[in-house]
């Protein structure tokens, strides 16, 4: 009879602990709960300044999904070799021609180890027409994307070393359609560029929480090997914690991609720089 009583108490205790942990996860102040009912390992939540609203357990995974996100960069280009060419495309012009865009980030951390996947892709379309002896319509499609797959290791409470692979996509197509009267003369798709380049990255991440609401994050990485001759990214973000699970991110990002080539004994250097503000919503669980 006593053994049955102990078993029932044990079941009730496990249920109560699970129930209290559920309440804590929904933001109930631990001081509102009778301390005699809570084990130390359940009540030991991370301090607010750590930026982690979950229990301070290095043996548990913590996930962050940042979506939706927006990066509004201006694009600056430089071509050196032969006659220099400089150009700039403002974000207003990009937005006017934007047909599709998506940006998101995924993070998973357990103890000192971390994984991340960051993706930013967009498609820009434009169409021009010309009338004359031949009526010609030209539609331009440009796909661009930067995708990072990263692994990190925490070397300090606020610092992580990062390495991984960056995928840079650039594809440009021309759809040309020409007619003479009612007769079709030309209808063809021409691929101007279709590049998929990969770089090995090494970088550092720094994050700091000033209080239970405000923090900052600094990311910087450099391509140390790969298809591009220059690959550098820097990212600053301010973090505002709306609730234990929801965060508001805003900041600034800089990305430079460059490559060198030789054609007809002329050395060419091509650099594309994107720089602009970022904003997003992050959900942590």
Structure description:
With 285 residues, this protein is mostly beta strands. The protein has two domains: 1-44, no CATH class; 49-284, Lipocalin, CATH 2.40.128. Helix content is 12%, strand content 65%. The chain has helices spanning 2-25, 40-43, 91-97; strands at 62-71, 74-80, 85-89, 98-110, 113-130, 135-156, 159-180, 183-209, 214-226, 230-241, 246-263, 266-284. Mean pLDDT is 81; it is low at 1-55.
Which short descriptors sum up this protein?
285 residues, mainly beta, Lipocalin, 2 domains
Give a brief outline of the structure:
This protein is mainly β. The chain has helices spanning 2-25, 40-43, 91-97, and strands at residues 62-71, 74-80, 85-89, 98-110, 113-130, 135-156, 159-180, 183-209, 214-226, 230-241, 246-263, 266-284. The protein contains three helices and twelve strands.
What's the topology here?
Blueprint: H1 2-25, H2 40-43, E1 62-71, E2 74-80, E3 85-89, H3 91-97, E4 98-110, E5 113-130, E6 135-156, E7 159-180, E8 183-209, E9 214-226, E10 230-241, E11 246-263, E12 266-284
Antiparallel strand pairs: 1-4, 1-12, 2-3, 2-12, 4-5, 5-6, 6-7, 7-8, 8-9, 9-10, 10-11, 11-12
Based on CA atoms alone, the radius of gyration comes out at 27 Å
CATH architecture of the largest domain: Beta Barrel
In terms of DSSP E residues, the strand content is: over 45%
Q: What's the CATH first level of the largest domain?
A: Mainly Beta
Q: How many H/I helical runs?
A: 3
Task: Assign the structural class, choosing from mainly alpha, mainly beta, alpha/beta, alpha+beta, or little secondary structure.
Answer: mainly beta
Give me the count of strands.
12
Biggest β-sheet, characterized?
10 strands, antiparallel, barrel
N-to-C order of helices and strands: HHEEEHEEEEEEEEE
Average predicted confidence as pLDDT: 81
For the termini, the CA-CA separation is 43 Å
Tally of domains = 2
The spatial strand order of the largest sheet comes to 1-4-5-6-7-8-9-10-11-12
Overall morphology: elongated
Uncertain spans = 1-55
Helix content: 10-25%
Could you name the CATH topology of the largest domain? Lipocalin
